[in-house]
């Protein structure tokens, strides 16, 4: 993957790239939006804990395709309030801690999700050589 950061635009606000070029012929994985529901049905409290669980789900999905966090080319995060941005961003940084070529990233504030206890949802695009 080739991170894209053209001169003449401001640097990214956090640990992400403005764009990512995916070489021709790579396999793509697109996850559904992941919510923070544990296998036993519980939902952790707080944006950081919810985002960590969402990234755990994403890691498992990517692993099934033989990929990992370094293969992620775009992350879209959704939070229900500006107050949840810091917790989400800290979890995103933990997910990307070992990644050197950072993915593109979008963070949106939305009105809500299917259940009131969810405050974070995350989806990714990943690409890897065949």
Automatic annotation (TrEMBL):
Pfam families: Ribonuc_L-PSP. Signal peptide: none annotated. SUPFAM superfamilies: YjgF-like. It comes from the Bacteria. PANTHER family: BLR7761 PROTEIN (PTHR43857), YJGH FAMILY PROTEIN (PTHR43857:SF1). This is RidA family protein. The lineage of its organism: Bacteria, Pseudomonadati, Pseudomonadota, Alphaproteobacteria, Rhodobacterales.
């Amino acid at each position: 993957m080739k991170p894209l950061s053209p001169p003449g635009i401001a640097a990214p606000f956090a640990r992400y790239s403005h764009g990512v070029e995916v070489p021709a012929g790579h396999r793509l994985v697109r996850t559904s939006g992941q919510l923070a529901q544990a296998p036993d049905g519980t939902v952790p409290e707080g944006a950081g804990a919810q985002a960590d669980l969402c990234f755990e789900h994403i890691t498992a999905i990517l692993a099934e395709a033989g990929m990992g966090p370094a293969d992620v080319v775009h992350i879209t995060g959704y939070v229900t309030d500006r107050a949840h941005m810091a917790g989400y961003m800290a979890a995103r940084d933990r997910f990307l801690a070992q990644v050197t070529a950072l993915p593109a990233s979008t963070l949106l504030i939305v009105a809500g999700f299917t259940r009131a206890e969810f405050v974070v949802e995350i989806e990714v695009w990943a690409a890897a050589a065949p």
